[in-house]
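Dear Dr. H.,

I hope your travels went smoothly. While you were away I took the liberty of generating a structure for the chain from your last submission, since the lab meeting agenda had it listed for discussion. I wanted you to have the full record in hand beforehand rather than looking at slides cold. The sequence, exactly as received, is reproduced here:
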Amino acid sequence: MSNLNATAGNRGPGVRYVTIDARHAGQRLDNFLLAQFRDAPRSLIYRILRKGEVRVNKGRASASQRLQTGDVVRLPPIRMAADQPRPKIPAGWIAQLENAIIHEDDCLLVINKPPGLAVHGGGGVPFGVIDILRASRGKAAMLELAHRLDRDTSGCLLLAKSREVLLNLQAQMQSEGTADKRYRAVVKGRFKRGKGRDGEVLVNAPLRKNILKGGERMVLIDPNGKPAQTVFRLLEARDNASLVEAQLLTGRTHQVR
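The corresponding predicted structure, in token form, is as follows:
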């Protein structure tokens, strides 16, 4: 299939039509476009979607639409401003992330993401984990985020080396009882024990996702949203701070927040 890259200062190729194969079936349209136009800011991707410049099977399409095998996607030419060159990634960041890899095989890569680094660039962030690793390994290397961590959050981040592995990992993460996802956080004050086993606190708050004009995603508590359940446990308390563990029973964006 075609592989397009937006080039700074030049108008890209004319309108292109890409037929979706099995490797990309099930992928969200916005994520597909972000992978095709890797140098383009997220805000630009969502802008061309809103304007209807991207079409699927000749019809308008939303960012969240799932692509199917055989779909024909219209990719418009993209113009990047000449005064917005692709940010150069410092060699120090490349070395730091390569040293932070804790597991790698033919299917996936697991990295211990440091705090203060976004998982991808966009929205004023020049680059992130995925951009650094792609710069290190070259554009030919297939690397896609299987999930995300907040910029200030550290922890294990999984990256897939093929579309098949990506879908498999995401399916496991979204399936209840398949993946055990736990986070630890230090919170201000004394965490109040709940009535559950060992003082567990179950937070059951349905979440609804909104996509803003700039492409950013905002998650709100909404009774009509998707179920989101998190179990909190107090691990340790000292003075005016508590160490808690958050176990995700479901896999929703910004669920721990």
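Two observations you may find useful: The first strand starts at residue 16 and ends at 19. The two ends are 38 Å apart (CA to CA).

With kind regards,
E. W.
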